[in-house]
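User: Please look over both lines:
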Amino acid sequence: MSRGSALTPRWRVGYTVQKRLARALTHMALLAMVAVLFVPAAWMISTSLKAPQEVYLFPPKWVPSSLRWENYYHALTIQPFHIYLLNSFLIAATGTLGRVLSSSLVAFSFARLRWKGRDILFLVMLSTLMLPSQVTLIPQFILFKELGWLNTFRPLIVPMFFGGPFFIFMLRQFYMTIPSELDDAARIDGCSSFEVYWRIIVPQSGPALATVAVLVFQGRWNDFFDPLIYLHERMKLTASVGLLYFRNEFGGAHWPQLMAASFVCMVPLIVLFFSAQRYFLQGIVFTGVKG
């Protein structure tokens, strides 16, 4: 028998076929799940381009008879929606900066410094995760009222500069994967604790910090409850609260314009996620030092 004429064993061929079939079925199942999850977004985009009378048709009509791009113009001009978007961006961006800085500093202290009572305070901090936000709502409201902060952005921004238990825990776990020899080498070169944090830890923690930034920005952008409680003037509202006023403007829900405004509110989050997708996915899997 000549070389190369030997046939591949049947069990190996069968195993390869089964493996490819399983992979194809897995991909098909995942695509089906993505399609199901995409249905609400597709319906929102479709509705935003419809005439009002087409919204209530049955069976539903996915493709509008004519694309009503003016729905977006009316949605953004019938109310000062550009002001709402700017307010949301200011609150989300400033809050994200404060949360990332404060959480990363506290996490560095818990992970890389040795001081008395560190582990006890870490457990106390973790225990606050079990405290519902509704429990502290009234005391916080009274505090901000006494400080004269009601109807300002300060109740929505200042608390973000005092860390967050979940993000402190997440960053601490990431920092602990970075070899401590890097800290020792930096201290031998004369670096202080803050210089170790800024020159060694932060450059190694890009994925983790990006993950925190994306999650915080998303939470602050979509926040509805806090702006509703602390902001009263029309020109200080955020986009999430501004959507509520569409009912008042039309005496009911004007669905095409409401869906148009909702889609505009989604665009910054979509752009942010796809821009930071690589770092975000790396931060989910806590890795050590890259080679």
About this structure: The chain has 15 helices and no strands. The CA atoms of residues 25 and 31 lie 10 Å apart. The chain has two domains: 10-69, 71-284.
